[in-house]
């Protein structure tokens, strides 16, 4: 399990290979890449700046990954979240889950993303033509996370 | 009781500080008491921490609710709903 | 939309970048990588050889991708399936879907994989210590595809 | 009526051929008729195409079922359930 918060870009080939290249039990890797879009709520976005709560972030992400591991067959998992200033088309987050079979990999990956969106202490500020503004939390993200509740 | 207070994102900007060391009066026993105590500072504190405003609380880097009891040395964070990913 | 059947390995960085780097509307890329495992049905697998039906394969995959595009917000999609002889830990298939939001990307990606498993004319033969054998279709794959039926 | 027959995977191996050009007798009008006609060859044809065996049919590169009518020049494929991905 690898959990990392960083400003640098990441290498998808290397990150995914680390999940499967040395483990021939892995039959499936489901992954998610979140990217900066150039429009949000109808306004142009020039840059996105991500802030987080060092310490709590890693703790929250580790807890989410552990919860996913307790629910599905998960052989390995990588979560990398970038912070700092990013531009449209730049990757923000990578969540990748390695499992024996695809259903577990898909479900665990989507679960981690849904909880990351509502539980991990990151905040986005976007620069628009009208100035900088903090991105508002989306109710749809709460709904997405709530559907996993047992 | 002494605690460290951390503010993030919009709250950090509104309060004009990222952290402070606070000595709490004896009647502040829970996280809810602490929020009420901060609110009583007035200004941005009263506005941002008003009843019904959406903010989140964490104690020692775990999400927490107003009923959570505080103890000396706690790291308390107050921040807007998260928007990562 | 890119649909390709090939013997060569593929470059994940390049394939995923092709989906998002030039399109700032893309906020989410969900992807799936299927890999050769070293064990199947309890037996060791030394190599896996994939055969397909040229012409029908591409047609079947294009139809599956079109169906996914009609159901979800899909900005772009790449499906690459390898054929020929592969070894454990080697990638077999990549399905990657680019959307504005993550729910569409996840659902469409999983849909394409489920239908690929039951509708695209590929067949696997595995080399085990007891000799070569054709992989049997799995009932769980039919069940997975059936859940998308409206 | 002339059709091209294609076999894949285990069926290709069992039948010992990947394809054949076949001239069908007049009574073979549907895909189901064609399968019965091939089955009547006996041997591996009778075994692999027996009622209850799992195999799939395609006409001109689309999945098809036994009721599908055949026409001159069709490309007909017979293969085991698919196992890609």
From TrEMBL, chains A, C:
Q: Which controlled-vocabulary keywords does the entry list?
A: Molybdenum cofactor biosynthesis, Transferase
According to UniProt, the reaction catalysed is: 2 [molybdopterin-synthase sulfur-carrier protein]-C-terminal-Gly-aminoethanethioate + cyclic pyranopterin phosphate + H2O = molybdopterin + 2 [molybdopterin-synthase sulfur-carrier protein]-C-terminal Gly-Gly + 2 H(+)
UniProt cross-references to Pfam families, sorted A to Z = MoaE (PF02391)
User: For this protein, what is the EC number?
Assistant: 2.8.1.12
Q: Can you name one GO molecular function term for this protein?
A: molybdopterin synthase activity
**Which pathway does it serve?**
Cofactor biosynthesis; molybdopterin biosynthesis
**Gene3D superfamilies, per the entry:** Molybdopterin biosynthesis MoaE subunit
Query: Per its UniProt record, what NCBIfam families does this chain match?
Result: PRK10678.1 (NF007959)
Name of the protein this chain belongs to: Molybdopterin synthase catalytic subunit
Originating species: Sulfuritortus calidifontis
Q: What is the lineage of its organism?
A: Bacteria, Pseudomonadati, Pseudomonadota, Betaproteobacteria, Nitrosomonadales
From TrEMBL, chains B, D:
The GO terms describing molecular function are: nucleotide binding
Q: Name one GO biological process term.
A: Mo-molybdopterin cofactor biosynthetic process
Keyword DNA-binding in the entry? The reply is no
* Keywords annotated in UniProt: Nucleotide-binding
Query: Which is one Gene Ontology cellular component term of this protein?
Result: molybdopterin adenylyltransferase complex
The question of whether Nucleotide-binding is a record keyword is answered with yes
Q: Which Pfam families does this entry report, sorted A to Z?
A: ThiS
Task: Spell out the family assignment given in the record's similarity comment.
Answer: Belongs to the MoaD family.
Under which name does UniProt file this protein?
Molybdopterin synthase sulfur carrier subunit
| Organism whose genome encodes this protein | Sulfuritortus calidifontis
């Amino acid at each position: 399990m690898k959990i990392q918060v960083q400003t640098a870009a990441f290498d998808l080939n290397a990150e995914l290979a680390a999940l499967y290249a040395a483990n021939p039990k892995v039959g499936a890797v489901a992954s998610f890449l979140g990217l900066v879009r150039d429009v949000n709520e109808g306004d142009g976005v020039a840059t996105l700046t991500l802030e987080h709560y060092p310490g709590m972030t890693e703790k929250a992400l580790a807890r989410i990954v552990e919860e996913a591991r307790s629910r599905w067959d998960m052989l390995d998992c990588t979560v990398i979240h970038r912070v700092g200033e990013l531009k449209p088309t730049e990757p923000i987050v990578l969540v990748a889950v390695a499992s024996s079979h695809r259903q577990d990999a898909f479900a665990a990956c989507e679960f981690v993303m849904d909880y990351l969106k509502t539980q991990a202490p990151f905040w986005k500020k976007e620069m628009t033509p009208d100035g900088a503004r903090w991105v508002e939390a989306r109710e749809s993200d709460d709904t997405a996370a709530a559907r996993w509740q047992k | 009781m002494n605690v460290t207070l951390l503010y993030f994102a919009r709250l950090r900007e509104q309060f004009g500080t990222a952290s402070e060391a606070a000595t709490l009066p004896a009647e502040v026993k829970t996280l809810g008491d602490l929020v009420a105590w901060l609110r009583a500072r007035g200004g941005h504190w009263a506005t941002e921490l008003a009843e019904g405003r959406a903010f989140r609380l964490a104690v020692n880097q775990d999400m927490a609710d107003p009923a959570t009891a505080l103890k000396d040395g706690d790291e308390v964070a107050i921040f807007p709903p998260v928007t990562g990913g």
